[in-house]
# Entry
Amino acid sequence: MLEALQGKVRTLKRLAWSRLPVALQEAYASHRFADRYRQPNTAYLETTSACNLNCVMCAAQRPATKRFKPSGFMDVALFRRLVDEIVDAHPGITSLYLHKDGEPLLHPRIVPMIEHAAARHRDVTLVTNATLLDDELSRAILATPLQRIRFSVDGLTRATFERVRVQLPGNEYAGSGPPVGFEAVMRNIDRFLELRQQSGNRTIEVGLRTTDFRPTSGELDAYRAYWLKRVEYVDVAHLISWTGEVGREKDDPDRHACMAPWAMVVVSWDGKLVPCCTYVDTSGAGQGNLFDLRTASLASALRAERRRALMKAHLDGDLDEVAPYCVGCRDWRSIPIPLRGRDRVLRRLGAVAGPAAP
# Structure
């Protein structure tokens, strides 16, 4: 009865929408889009930048990046403070991720960090490559109120997986940890799912993610079919350019402002606010370090002069001086700004950028 009524309401809404003047539709759509990004809606707290893999499509663990950003682990007190600030002062941040460049399970205090984040925030996601997921750690994670765990697994066959998810001899964890190959990862995930069933945990949602690019493209349909019988969701990601380090942008006359500075708050393990979740610094210039959160609040970070300048550079299409790391990036396409009503959207985004804090 209720479902039927809701269906009728949706039908009436669609009918009413179709009869509105186009100009009014555009105005409403642009208002909704801009309103969504008045404040960030997603936060990434980088629990660690260390990783035991050197995946071929990831620039974060390459020597050019590690030269200026060595492996580090977020201080637990800083992590707890940031989580508390997000929950208490920034309710518009509705999604919280516990990673950026590294493998979170390498952090020696990751379980208490998960416990605190998930107890305070209603939508926390742990992303992991599952190589370290033994029985003890799986049981500990399942005992927390974590809402979502997503396993990064590329390929459905050993040949594809080990073509993409490699551990190079120079990796700081090479030879000192558990196996990182295909069979070990599949076994760890299967065991986690088995322990979830045994534990009676009905709150944690499990998902898989793969990247759609040449090595994996032939297995995507089979990948989805296999995992959707076992987990709640499957994500297929486009190939990220990592601020131009993995494939550079060509001149695109339709290029518009990247929404990342408006959409997300990204904090590196050392407390630095950075432009987005795929930012890497291979120059050593540090221009993407927008604010230091070790000594100030998240509210201050959102008003930071460098953050506002980054937004304005994107709106003006003049990135060379303020954000040269964005020039070659292709990831601005991830959140397309509607063509209809775009001028209205850009004016509203400009109002968010506003004058920098004194």
User: Anything to note?
Assistant: The longest helix spans residues 182-199. The longest strand covers residues 205-211.
